[in-house]
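Running log. JK asked me to keep both predictions on one page so they can be read side by side. First protein, sequence followed by its tokens:
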Amino acid sequence: MTNVNSINQCKERVMNVVRKLMKANINPLTQGNISCRDTETGLVIITPHDYPYEIMTVDDLVVLDIDGNVVEGKRVPSCEAPVHLSVYKKRPKVNGVVHTEPIYTNAFGIAGRPIEPCFVNMGICAGGAVPIMPFEDSGSYEFAEKMLKLMEGRNAIVWACHGLLTVGPTVEDAFKCTVMVEQGAQINYVALSLGTPYVIGQKKLDQLISLKEGE
């Protein structure tokens, strides 16, 4: 039986992230998409396709099963729902996915330059350097398979000439990763203008991540 309370809680959490992204000016207008997997039912709550965040409410969100069938909702789900669903299928510990189009992160994507972990908080959240996926049409299961291979278990990836996708144990964690990656991109951009940035090694990052997970 569908747990209405848990689904409604997920809807509220998605909308909370929507509001935070708008406030941070990371997702203007109708750009990007956000989803949350309800851990009790396995259902996925996702933002609708091409719908303004300024007027979006919980009633506009769409509930999908893991195969993409609409369980509840009056609107069309995001066209990139297959990417979200593929992440949930392949990475069972992930329960939140956030796709955004932040400016500095996109600049690195357009340049084809990975965002190196020069900023410790970004490195911990993302799990290492943020890779760049070559430009191609998004929104398909085939695209998602290529993306997941490039991610190699990391929590963030940049789609060249498009935007950023982050994941996390919760949708709030995915949002935090989004903010940290964009901040890391800004810091990298400034550091590159000053000289050669120091890059935190993966071994050290792994140690820091283990410490963080043990808190």
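And the second, directly underneath as requested:
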Amino acid sequence: MTKFRTLPPFGADQREVAEVVRGVMDGKTNNVGYFTTTVTATSTVLNDERISYDSAIIFTPMNEKGAQEMAKLWVGTRSRGSAIIHHASNAHVCEFMYIIVG
């Protein structure tokens, strides 16, 4: 996971704020990650500190096998810091990128 610059909870100087705002305006919102399914497994635990109970998790396939399996991919239980991703049991590895919203 790439770490992007954040601001301290109680403010920052103008330069720090400008750098973070510019990153956001350039699409760098610090909500992207990657995961790979395990051969023959039917679920994957996605651990990410940015996930919460009400997060939406959106997927993009990163290989051909992942693209073929998109219709069988869904988010189950979400909790603070993790989510269960359900998928088909396959004899191959599927790779995905995800974004977290909320």
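Observation for JK regarding the second prediction: DSSP finds two helices and six strands in the chain.
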